[in-house]
């Protein structure tokens, strides 16, 4: 894929994402799901009304800014309500979220490209992200999760850009990585897992390097130039293997798998992840430790000036107390509680809005209980659920990457007759390591969480699932064998068709009762 077609493709992905998020944004003239908190909180900052916030305040600042801008625009005010505490149009408290969510597919595509320099991989990653349901739903309402994700992903993108540059440019990108990681945590605490993923992939890179540098662990603390000179002898041992890996990445087709890793760029044998060991521990602690902590701290200043009941330490104690009081992770606490192990297979999505009407010409119901069973002929449902086939194919691709990493390690250890790892990893091995580590970093911390959790808490992890299935499909489409190319086309087609099929419950479009039931494949989805 040449640069021109890649640019056209990414513009189309963005326009698709933008159109879906803004189409009928004012459809429900009410507060949908947690808009009863976040839209009100954003308005409270504008009216200088003190309140307790159970999360860090950054997303509510942004929603408040959106309300202020939207209120000064001379349109979007055909429908208004006073549910936020002021007379506002739904557009005013939703439009900035919709715009922000529209950029998430582009950031995912940018990460994919920076990992591999493969345009096909990048455009598939952006397209699949644009075709997910829960990201579409979360972007269309005044909620917080799109900000956790986009700031966390920007942190990873800036980190990859830093690894791809040197000296001042590297420091420049590392500063921005620290800022955006801090902003992610400043939205919700689970944004910290994006930062932990960055640390874990860095630690993994150093472990691989130190295994081949032993007994020279002091390299961990040395500058990149000294480290490279001292490890030159170790690197010479792996030159033959590196040459083999590069020839594969430059376009040699693997006859066993039929998968081509060809890239039109001569840099296809490189990935910024190979430069992770050029960052020493002091750089990591400053750029990805002190800077995020500083950003997180200053984010709190406007809120603490508004609500003077709690200081910085006390407000965190109150937030922790609030979350610990939410009870166990069971339907007895909330009907949509879903433990972490239910998220990957999407066994318990949740309805953000559900109403029925007697006819499609009847004014949209916004308040009160649904009509009695059998009376409603039209169903309006906004369901926070992913694209089922995107998630299911994605988790299979993630398991494939895990299997690939394990098999490569086992084969190498058997060949060497001792535990070891290759001194030089191929680009696809680095990608697999990056995706698996970051997926687990954003999922496994929830294993120890005992409070009621919901499927939207999986959003930070599932973006790496989108990257995994995009990588797998890209490998299939570049395959030497027609059968594998057909597999890639089929998977892409199924994901797109599934997105169209479930789109009415993402956008809250009117459905007949039978049409609604047709999309609720399992009782646990209702």
Biggest sheet: strands, sense, closure? Answer: 3 strands, antiparallel
Sheet with the most strands: spatial strand order: 1-2-3
Low-confidence stretches: 225-268
Mean pLDDT across residues: 88
Q: Tally the beta strands.
A: 3
Radius of gyration, in angstroms, nearest whole number: 24 Å
Order of helices and strands: HHHHHHHHHHHHHHHEEHHHHEH
| Intertermini distance | 42 Å
Report the helical percentage.
Answer: 55-70%
How would the global form be characterised? Answer: globular
Structure description:
With 526 residues, this protein is mainly alpha-helical. Helix content is 59%, strand content 3%. The protein has 20 helices and 3 strands. Strands 1-2-3 form a 3-stranded antiparallel sheet. Helix 3 (58-71) packs across helix 4 and helix 7 (145-163) runs antiparallel to helix 8. Residues 225-268 have low confidence and may be disordered.
Q: Would you spell out the secondary-structure blueprint of this structure?
A:
Layout (H helix, E strand, L loop, with lengths): L2 H20 L12 H13 L10 H14 L18 H27 L2 H12 L2 H7 L5 H19 L3 H19 L6 H22 L10 H7 L1 H5 L2 H11 L31 H19 L1 H6 L5 H13 L25 E8 L20 E7 L3 H29 L10 H17 L15 H19 L4 H26 L2 E2 L1 H7 L7
Antiparallel strand pairs: 1-2, 2-3
Helix pairs in contact: 1-4, 1-5, 2-3, 3-4, 4-5, 4-6, 4-7, 5-18, 6-19, 7-8, 7-9, 8-13, 9-17, 16-17, 16-18, 16-19, 17-18, 18-19
């Amino acid at each position: 894929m040449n640069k021109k077609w890649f640019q056209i493709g990414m513009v189309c992905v963005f326009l698709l994402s933008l159109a879906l998020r803004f189409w009928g944004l004012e459809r429900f003239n009410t507060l949908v799901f947690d808009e009863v908190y976040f839209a009100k909180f954003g308005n409270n900052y504008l009216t200088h009304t003190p309140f307790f916030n159970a999360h860090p305040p950054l997303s509510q600042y942004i929603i408040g800014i959106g309300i202020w801008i939207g209120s000064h625009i001379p349109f979007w005010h055909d429908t208004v309500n006073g549910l936020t505490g002021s007379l506002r149009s739904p557009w005013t408290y939703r439009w900035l979220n919709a715009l922000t969510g529209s950029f998430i597919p582009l950031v995912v595509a940018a990460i994919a490209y920076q990992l591999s320099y493969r345009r096909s991989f990048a455009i598939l990653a952006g397209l699949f992200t644009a075709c997910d349901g829960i990201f579409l739903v979360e972007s269309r309402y005044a909620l917080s999760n799109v900000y956790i994700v986009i700031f966390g992903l920007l942190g990873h993108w800036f980190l990859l850009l830093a690894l791809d540059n040197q000296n001042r440019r590297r420091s420049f990108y590392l500063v921005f990585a620290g800022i955006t990681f801090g902003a992610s945590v400043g939205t919700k605490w689970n944004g910290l897992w994006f930062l932990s993923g960055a640390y874990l992939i860095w630690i993994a890179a150093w472990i691989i390097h130190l295994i081949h540098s032993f007994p020279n662990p002091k390299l961990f603390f040395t500058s990149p130039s000294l480290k490279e000179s001292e490890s030159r002898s170790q690197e010479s041992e792996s030159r033959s293997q590196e040459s083999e890996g590069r020839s594969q990445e430059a376009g040699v087709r693997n006859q066993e798998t039929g998968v081509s890793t060809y890239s039109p760029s001569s840099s296809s044998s490189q990935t910024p992840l190979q430069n992770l060991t050029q960052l020493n521990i002091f750089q990591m602690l400053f750029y990805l430790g002190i800077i995020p902590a500083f950003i997180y701290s200053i984010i709190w200043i406007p809120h603490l000036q508004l609500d003077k009941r709690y200081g910085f330490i006390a407000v965190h104690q109150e937030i922790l107390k609030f979350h610990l009081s939410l009870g166990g992770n069971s339907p007895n606490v909330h009907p949509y509680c879903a433990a972490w192990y239910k998220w990957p297979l999407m066994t318990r999505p949740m309805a953000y809005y559900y109403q029925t009407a007697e006819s499609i010409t009847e004014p949209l119901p916004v308040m009160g209980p649904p009509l009695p069973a059998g009376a409603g002929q039209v169903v309006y449902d906004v369901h926070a659920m992913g694209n089922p086939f995107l998630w299911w194919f994605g988790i299979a691709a993630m398991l494939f990457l895990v299997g690939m990493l394990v098999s490569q390690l086992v084969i190498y250890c058997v060949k060497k007759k001792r535990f070891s790892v290759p001194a030089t990893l191929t680009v696809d091995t680095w990608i697999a390591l990056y995706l698996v580590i970051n997926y687990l970093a954003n999922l496994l911390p929830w294993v120890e969480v005992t409070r009621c959790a919901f499927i939207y808490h999986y959003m930070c992890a599932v973006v790496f699932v989108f990257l995994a299935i995009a990588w797998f499909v890209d490998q299939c489409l570049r395959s030497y064998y027609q059968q594998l190319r057909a597999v890639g086309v089929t998977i892409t087609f199924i994901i797109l068709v599934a997105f169209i099929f479930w789109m009415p419950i993402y956008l809250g479009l009117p459905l007949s009762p039978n049409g609604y039931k047709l999309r609720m494949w399992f009782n646990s989805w209702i």
